Amino acid sequence: MGVTEAWASYRWEQSANLSTQNSQANASNLKTFLSAVRLAHQGTDAGALPLSALVPAKTSEVEKPKAKMIITSRRDYPLTKNFPYSLEHLQASYCKLARIDTRVLCLKKLRKLDLSHNHIKQLPATIGDLVCLQELNLHDNHLESFSGALCNSTLQKSLQFLDLSQNKIKALPIQFCQLRELVNLKLDDNELIRLPFKIGQLDHLRFLSAARNKLPYLPSDFRKLCLENLDLFGNPFEQPNPLVPNIQLKIPLTLLECAARATINSRIPYGCHLLPSHLCEDLEVAKTCQCGGSCLSSFIQITVTMNLHHVAHTVVLVDNMGGTEAPIICYFCSLDCYSQFLDRYLQSNG
């Protein structure tokens, strides 16, 4: 074996050792390596080179890719070096972060991201590029909104846990209910004046808390939920009065209203490639009458009382009086439908 071959063999051995042992290397091995390089360069015979046999590293010596990192103070937050790309769980709490670090958005294996107890005001749309993200905790930040772009991202297929509690959010976007894999949703201690209109589309949702907000009533779609646990404590729910309707009915119906009702009731396919985007958005938030028919902007609206046990197995009391009832909106597409409801209501209430 010539010097070149010996040198190549030794270099391979040493690189193999270095790649598996990393921080286990010591100064003595390094000196031997440098000595062999110098002697080989001077033309020393291969047999005289201080080559060592390749010794496989022990399992305990092999450094595994880092999957979890927990940071709970600004002092420990890395400012100059990148996060390990192998991370699956990252917690960076109490770090006084005003925005989400762009380095975090490069962690494509991330499944759990906890940025609670920071000062974050806005979420970048690129969070939606974290294709494996299942849990997102943004508790106790300064958020005022949740982007519709995030709801249309790959989070639709991955996100199961979302904590937006203790922020300053007043409303969630129409697109929020595209996050259909959600199982656990925390919205406590915000400034919500309404829940998502189509919340009933979240058919995997099992845990919902929206305590201490400013909800006057629940959306009609709320009755479609099937929850294990529900907490709506401390909201200023209005007293329902079915005898005082909000009449938005326009007679005769406009051509737009007739077309919209026909499209939805007959399940005619539509999309932005066929209709202007604003019409598609209107159709997405069409109301459903008690008769099963749809209405767009011509309807009668009332609030009625619903026992929350109809949608949840366990219900946290909604007030200090021990109540488990809350007002929910009902829509009627015509005077006929409202009259039929009124007859039943008056009969059941004596």
From TrEMBL:
Subunit and interaction comment: Component of the probable ECS(LRR1) E3 ubiquitin-protein ligase complex which contains CUL2, RBX1, Elongin BC complex and LRR1. Interacts with CUL2, RBX1, ELOB and ELOC.
Stretch forming the signal peptide: none
UniProt KW keywords: Leucine-rich repeat, Nucleus, Repeat, Ubl conjugation pathway
Entry protein name: Leucine-rich repeat protein 1
An annotated GO cellular component: cytoplasm
PANTHER family xrefs: LEUCINE-RICH REPEAT PROTEIN 1, PTHR48051
Gene3D superfamilies linked: Ribonuclease Inhibitor
Physiological role: Substrate recognition subunit of an ECS (Elongin BC-CUL2/5-SOCS-box protein) E3 ubiquitin-protein ligase complex which mediates the ubiquitination and subsequent proteasomal degradation of target proteins. ECS(LRR1) ubiquitinates MCM7 and promotes CMG replisome disassembly by VCP and chromatin extraction during S-phase. May negatively regulate the 4-1BB-mediated signaling cascades which result in the activation of NK-kappaB and JNK1.
Keyword Nucleus appears in the UniProt entry: yes
Main location: nucleus
Subcellular locations according to the entry: Nucleus
Pathway the protein takes part in: Protein modification; protein ubiquitination
InterPro entries: Leu-rich_rpt (IPR001611), Leu-rich_rpt_typical-subtyp (IPR003591), LRR_dom_sf (IPR032675), LRR_domain-containing (IPR050216)
